[in-house]
Amino acid sequence: MIKVFFLIFEPTSAWDKIAQARRGLWHITLVTILPLLLAGTLLEAWGLSAHGKWQGRFQIMKRFTPPDIAAFETIQFLLLLAMVFLCALVVFRIGQTFLERLTFEQAFRTVAYAFSPMFLFHFLDAGASVSPVVPWLLGMGVVVWTLYQGIPRVMQPDPTHAFGVYLSTTIVIVMTSATVRVITGMYLLGYMDVQHSWMSRTITSLGSLFGH
Questions:
Q1: For residue 110, is it within any domain?
Q2: E strands within the chain?
């Protein structure tokens, strides 16, 4: 988890160490991604419970009930986790057109570590008056910047293909993460009712089933 700070402040040396370590999919998921996601989820849940979220559309400070918070945070957590794997798969498929020896682990390693600064900035969502757009923009700015350092070291494209791989990867990550941010941001700002969604009802039903 500490590695995310090195990616922000010392990206070159951080990516060199990542490339040398060659951590596997499960190690990266369990040691890097899940702790950041869980910390961000718990912190945001606390913020929504303690002071709510400012909804400019209605000019009110929206208060959230525990069921609302549980449903939203569960759905958001699953979306963010799925986003990492989906982006890695798409980057892997696209990268194969440039790099015949590219493996899925290389693509996943690049995408997962690149996303970690964005997950760190997600902590800002705990603030009552912080717009959902702000943490995403700050995080995505760092992601795009660090990717430029990481792709040559982890995915190792030929110099002639390096910029194409970087551009393709950046587009995939920005578009996918923007979609997730729009969905979650719309709920926080009062444009969507997550509590009555199909996924929320399914989670509630499973919880009741195991509760009995």
A1: yes
A2: 53-55, 60-62
Torsion-angle region of residue 64: left (phi > 0), alpha (psi -120 to 50) or beta?
beta
Number of domains in the chain: 1
pLDDT tens digits along 157-204: 888 888 999 999 999 999 999 999 999 998 888 887 655 544 455 545
Comparing 3-12, 40-49, 170-179, which segment has the lowest mean pLDDT? 3-12
The CA distance from 18 to 59, in Å, is 46
pTM value is: 0.87
The answer as to whether 212 is a domain residue is: no
Amino acid at 78: L
DSSP secondary structure of 116-138: HHHHHHGGGGGSTT--THHHHHH
Does the residue 194 lie in any domain?
yes
Range of the domain at 64: 3-207
